[in-house]
Design a protein that fits this description.
247 residues; 10 helices; 44% helix; globular
Length: 247
C-alpha cells in the first residue's frame, strides 16, 4: 500500500495505515489519513482526492485560518467538521537554542491537550465511528495539531510509541517544501521556531510528558476527554485488522 499520496499543491498527505499494534493487529489502510491544508485542492489534485472516497474531513485550524486560506471545497460533499484544538496562541518567547525545537514544540502540544479538550473529544468520537471512514484530519502543515490527534488515535489503537514517533517524524520529508512555499508567499517574513520541523524527539517528549501527567495516554483520553471504553473499542474494531489479516 502507499503511505505518501502525491498531490501537486499539498505537501504532507499520507495514509496512517500499516502500523502494528501490541496485540498483533494492524491499522487498516485507507481508513484514516493525515494532511496539510486541503484548501489548496484544485484541478488534478481534486481528482486524486476524489479517488480516496473520503467521507469525513476534520479541520483542526482556527476559523480565521480557514477564512484566509480556504477549506476543502464544499462541492466534494464530505461531512466537514471544524474543530480547532489550539487554545492559546503560540508564544515564541520560551524558545531558546538551549531548550531546543523538540522541547519547545512538545510543550505547545501539551497545551493543546489542556485547551482543546472539547474538540479533541469530538474528533476522536468521529474517528471511532466506522460510518465516518475514510477520515482525513488536517491543519495547516499536518504536523503539530494533526500530529497530536494522530498520536492520540494511534495510541488508543494500540500502536507502540516508536511507530507513533516515526509516523510524526515523516513530516520532516516535507520541511524543505514548506519553507520554500512560505518564503514564496511571505517574502522577507521570518520563520517562527520549529517551522516545518518535526524532530522525532518532539513526539517522544510529548508522549512521555502526557503519560507522566495522567498515568497513560488512555487515562488522559478516558478521564480528561471523557471518551468511553465503548468508543475506544469501536475505534479499534473498525481501524484494526484481525491478527494475521492483510487488511
Amino acid at each position: 500500500m502507499i503511505r505518501h499520496i502525491e498531490f501537486a499543491s499539498i505537501r504532507n498527505f499520507r495514509d496512517v495505515g500499516g502500523y502494528a499494534t501490541q496485540d498483533g493487529r494492524t491499522v487498516q489502510w485507507q481508513r484514516l489519513y493525515r494532511a496539510d491544508s486541503l484548501g489548496w485542492l484544485a484541478g488534478d489534485d481534486l481528482t486524486t482526492f476524489r479517488a480516496l472516497r473520503v467521507r469525513t474531513v476534520i479541520d483542526l485550524r482556527h476559523p480565521f485560518e480557514i477564512e484566509k486560506a480556504g477549506r476543502v471545497p464544499e462541492t466534494e460533499g464530505q461531512n466537514y467538521q471544524n474543530l480547532p484544538i489550539e487554545g492559546r496562541r503560540w508564544d515564541s518567547s520560551p524558545y531558546s537554542e538551549e531548550i531546543g525545537v523538540g522541547r519547545y514544540l512538545a510543550d505547545r502540544y501539551l497545551e493543546m491537550t489542556e485547551d482543546g479538550v472539547e474538540h479533541l473529544r469530538t474528533a476522536l468520537e468521529t474517528i471511532a465511528r466506522a460510518e465516518n471512514a475514510p477520515v482525513v484530519i488536517h491543519c495547516a502543515a499536518g504536523k503539530d495539531r494533526t500530529g497530536v490527534l494522530t498520536a492520540l488515535t494511534l495510541s488508543l489503537a494500540g500502536v507502540g510509541e516508536e511507530d507513533i514517533v516515526a509516523d510524526y517524524a515523516l513530516t520532516g520529508l516535507a520541511t524543505e517544501a514548506f519553507i520554500a512555499d512560505w518564503r514564496g508567499r511571505h517574502p522577507g517574513v521570518p520563520l517562527w521556531p520549529g517551522f516545518g520541523l518535526a524532530p522525532a524527539e518532539t513526539m517522544r517528549f510529548f508522549l512521555t510528558d502526557l503519560t507522566a501527567r495522567h498515568g497513560s495516554i488512555e487515562r488522559y483520553v478516558t478521564q480528561v476527554l471523557n471518551i468511553s471504553p465503548a468508543t475506544i473499542a469501536e475505534l479499534r474494531d473498525h481501524l484494526l485488522t484481525e491478527p494475521n489479516s492483510d487488511g
